[in-house]
Amino acid sequence: MRRLPPLGSLRAFEAAARQGSFKRAAAELGVTPTAISHQVRQLEAGLGVSLFQRQTRQVVLSAEGRAFYPQLRQAFDMMADAVAATGRPARAVATLSATVAFTARLLVPRAAGFRRLNPGWDLRLHASDDPVDLSAGEADAAIRYGLGPYPGLDAHPVLADSFAPVCSPHLHLSGPEDLAASNLIHFEWGPAARLSVPTWRSWARAAGLAGRLDPEAGIVFSDENSAIQAAIAGQGVALLSLALVAAELASGALVQPFGPPLPGLRYDFVCRVGAEAGPAVAVLRRWLTADVIGQDLERSSVMG
């Protein structure tokens, strides 16, 4: 009978050693970094040795860890080969990360088109306003909102953004002077807030309403998608991305009663340098080109 440590602790150590990080190992295995740390300490206690040297911002394999890791990785590779040879072929999955609002407004309504264009592939959408670590394999590609550059990444422009007041047609706004009696809808910017992003204050200056409109009053939402829903529901006037509400403007669910529009930032399709020719990136790019943005990403490259 073989006497082995728990498989979970061996798996946690192997992932942490391979990734060089408890955080990246946790993302790979779908657990928390604390869980990885606990599993590794359990393994160390059972073996009676320290497998990592724990430093302030990183973990480094100890001499015992360096000796243990290659044999353990080989064992996991052999198990993976045995499973692949015995079971059904693994499904091909392409993962695209984007902001919550971009995912909800532009990607989700077109998700079914991905499999129509790419038979045999599954799509995984990762919605987060925090940039994912593409180098750690958290996603195959991402839609970043900003102006770049993105070191270590290839970037292809997707959409140039602009912002303007939009609202439900039932509010019957005729001119900027009507804003004084309307609720202004705001949302809290995520990582892009460190850049120059459109606000009601900057719009009031551009519209010549500085001092005649309180740009801070109104309703504040923690995310952009909620602000869009509030505008559709007639709760007030929102300064929104015209790219994200294009479908509602086309259907008449929202109207842009007046300007001026303000320039926003840019949505870029990004992937690791060297990964642009990979199959997962290729199928994501094909889908975005055909169904989401309708332009050739191959011809508009901005190197990060």
Give the key terms:
two-stranded antiparallel ribbon, D-Maltodextrin-Binding Protein, domain 2, 11 strands, LysR_subst-bd, Arc Repressor Mutant, subunit A, single chain, 37% helix
How are the SSEs ordered, and which strands pair?
Layout: H1 7-19, H2 22-29, H3 33-47, E1 52-54, E2 59-61, H4 63-86, E3 92-98, H5 100-107, H6 111-117, E4 121-127, E5 141-146, E6 153-166, E7 184-187, H7 200-206, E8 219-221, H8 224-232, E9 237-241, H9 246-251, E10 262-272, H10 279-292, E11 302-303
Parallel strand pairs: 3-4, 3-5, 7-8, 7-9
Antiparallel strand pairs: 1-2, 5-10, 6-9, 6-10, 6-11
Description:
It is a single chain. This protein has helices at 7-19, 22-29, 33-47, 63-86, 100-107, 111-117, 200-206, 224-232, 246-251, 279-292; strands at residues 52-54, 59-61, 92-98, 121-127, 141-146, 153-166, 184-187, 219-221, 237-241, 262-272, 302-303. By secondary structure, the protein is an alpha/beta fold. The protein folds into three domains: 7-86, Arc Repressor Mutant, subunit A; 92-158 and 266-303, Periplasmic binding protein-like II (D-Maltodextrin-Binding Protein, domain 2, 3-Layer(aba) Sandwich), CATH 3.40.190; 160-265, Periplasmic binding protein-like II (D-Maltodextrin-Binding Protein, domain 2, 3-Layer(aba) Sandwich), CATH 3.40.190.10. Strands 3, 4, 5, 6, 7, 8, 9, 10 and 11 form a nine-stranded mixed beta sheet that branches. Strand 1 and strand 2 form a beta hairpin. It starts with 6 loop residues before the first helix and ends with a strand.
